[in-house]
Amino acid sequence: MDTKQRILDEALTLFSEKGYANVFVGDIAERVGIKAPSLYKHYKSKKAIFDAIIDKMNESFAEQAKAMNINGSDAAADSAIYESMSEDNLLALGRQFFLFYLHDDYNKRFRKMLTLEQFNNKELADIYSKLYVDDPFSYQSMLLGMVTAAGLLKTDNVEIMTLHFYAPIYFLLTVCDRDPEREPWALKTLDEHIKQFNRLYGRKK
Fold this sequence. Notes:
Blueprint (H helix, E strand, L loop, with lengths): L2 H16 L6 H8 L3 H5 L5 H22 L7 H9 L3 H17 L1 H13 L4 H28 L8 H21 L4 H18 L5
């Protein structure tokens, strides 16, 4: 691991342990084993480090989506894939994404940091909402809207249907964050949730 990557890694660990506001550039440099002026050669500020961590998380998500043969952020590109997917494949896809978010090291530590800071820092609270509520909900709402228009699902309220789909998944993720031993239960519940969602909204495949 090169110095630039070590800075991100140690910074994220410190942020997740102490909270973003309580970590200073000097703390990060000390954890890496360099002096603060040397750190500034790689990143101009703590905010620049924070932004680079988000970029790395986005890259990791894109790589995971590509490995699963979907786009993951472009609902139009993914709608045809969803329409032709069997329920068994849909269950497997749901598990893969859930386990990625649960176990991806950057996501896990970043989510912990945002959980700590959301009541103290409005900007970080907004980032939490964007990453784990607004962006996923927007993508899934567009995706489910498209497959409903194609006749695969039936609803007169796509927004509520999306809430029915995503809210339990987010709930299960937060449960496992607090209590990792409940992961087997969460995975089983996730499968049953997706199957019931399909029945509830009349999925034809």
